[in-house]
Design a protein that fits this description.
Radius of gyration: 13 Å
Low-confidence stretches: none
Shape: globular
Number of helices: 0
Helix content: under 10%
Mean pLDDT: 95
Length: about 120
């Protein structure tokens, strides 16, 4: 069983930055998803096992950067220029195979970390 543990969430003012981390064991493609109150969970970013392939939702492209350090077994999401619309619970996810935007293709999920952006 793969365990995913997110950290780094918190409260930040609009325009600020946060870095989320997700610790995971094993060789997996990974992704970040988020769920705002009253909304469905949505794709944010994904990264291949090697880190050579990344993908971003249009809403975060140019502001967020996904990366990973396999030696530390950790994936990151650097979030810059945060907006109130980025407020959500952020989840990391892992799957064997290629990175994907499709939520249902991920096998393992973290418990989520809250990100709140104040205006």
């Amino acid at each position: 069983q793969v365990q995913l543990v997110e950290s780094g969430g918190g409260l930040v003012q609009a325009g600020g930055s946060l870095r989320l981390s997700c610790a995971a064991s094993g060789s997996y493609a990974m992704g970040w998803f988020r769920q705002a109150p009253g909304k469905e969970r949505e794709f944010v970013a994904a990264i291949s096992w090697s880190g050579g392939i990344t993908d971003y939702a249009d809403s975060v492209k140019g502001r967020f950067t996904i990366s990973r350090d396999n030696a530390k077994r950790t994936m990151y999401l650097q979030m810059n220029s945060l907006e109130p619309e980025d407020t959500a619970v952020y989840y990391c996810a892992a799957r064997r195979g290629v990175a994907t935007r499709r939520e249902y293709e991920y096998d393992y999920w973290g418990q989520g970390t809250q990100v709140t952006v104040s205006s």
